[in-house]
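Ticket #4471: structure export looks truncated?
Reporter: QA, pipeline team
Priority: medium

Steps to reproduce: submit the single chain below to the structure queue and open the exported record.
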Amino acid sequence: MPKQRITKNMVVEAAFKIARQSGMEKVLVKSIADELGCSVQPIYSYCKNMDGLREDVGNKARDFITEYITSHIDRSDLFRSTGKAYIQLAKEEPHILKIFILQERRNISSLKDIYETETNPQTAQAIAKDLDISVETAKQLHLNMLIYTIGLGTIFSVSSPGIPIDEIFLQQEQAHQAFLNDVLRKRD
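Actual output as written to the record:
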């Protein structure tokens, strides 16, 4: 039996490329085959069902976002710059953001679960140190901004013809100040 030239990784990469360019709804066996220049048979051999492939694409989107955010943050202003990086991501990669947001999260029964699953624990520690607040307070502040920023990013990524990014950044900055002022008021 001759060795197949199409690999599972190639299928996932092609599906990710399609999802990134056109959205997850365009990830179909036929479109993947067209992207790879092959018949649908190799795609079916790796994808017993589309749910598994969508999960693989979702995981690639998560990895992409982690790399994107890491490369776009200002370490001297971690809190504010992380939020801006998410909004910039929504502008540049709206389909990736949608994939990430709409990806099913299993075993989540609270916002605390989501926070612990979706964030790097060092972020809250850095925020706590920068603002001279407790780590628990920093986690709550960070969670508030994540919820707000992801909401803004979602609105931004699905609006047409599009909200000016400066308006989104201004709204985000106002929320940042309100959340921060609340924390600092309670600290004093």
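Status: closed, not a bug. The export was complete when the record was re-opened. Leaving a note from the reviewer for reference: The mean pLDDT is 88.
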